[in-house]
Amino acid sequence: MSFKELVNLRESTRAYMDKKVEREKLELCIEAARMAPSACNSQPWKFILVDEEKSVEDVAKMVYDPMIRMNKFALEVPAFIVVVLEKPNITSKIGGIIKGKDYSITDIGIATEHICLSAAEQGLGTCIIGWFKEKEIKEYLKIPRGKEVPLVITIGYPKNEEVRKKVRKDLKDIMSYNHY
């Protein structure tokens, strides 16, 4: 498929089939993330694949927030990819301090989208989640103190194979040439 077709195919999936995701497919997604660019080649990431039934059930309860009914669909997800923010290399860190920007969080975003595009190419659906019980997930997955978990990705076979129509702003509303 063309890149444009792939981008149009990729969407946030919130309903999954009850079907285990093959580890080979999960690893292809991580390989795509591994190849993502990062500031000063810092590669400030680690990915935890959660695919064993008990672990998936436990992590799902840490992603779903019953108080505000956020992410209820996570209770039926077949697998998760937990994104761990690692320390950037010294060059990226110093550059970030000088420029007042956290390049590592941008790097995480790029790598995460590489995962989602790879998943879409393989017929899998994903949803990037930022609302979850980080402290509980870190403890459960034995993530060392001082590390952050900025995102959790749901991944599995979508229940609905029909791609939703994307509602986006017009191109002219989000771009300009040579000045704002």
From TrEMBL:
Q: Does the keyword Lipoprotein apply?
A: no
Q: What InterPro entries has UniProt attached to this entry?
A: Nitroreductase, Nitroreductase-like
Task: List the keywords (alphabetical).
Answer: Oxidoreductase
Q: Does the keyword Protein biosynthesis apply?
A: no
Ranges of residues in domain Nitroreductase: 10-157
In the record, the note on similarity to other proteins reads:
Belongs to the nitroreductase family.
The identity of this protein, by name, is Nitroreductase
The major lineage groups are: Bacteria, Bacillati, Bacillota, Clostridia, Eubacteriales
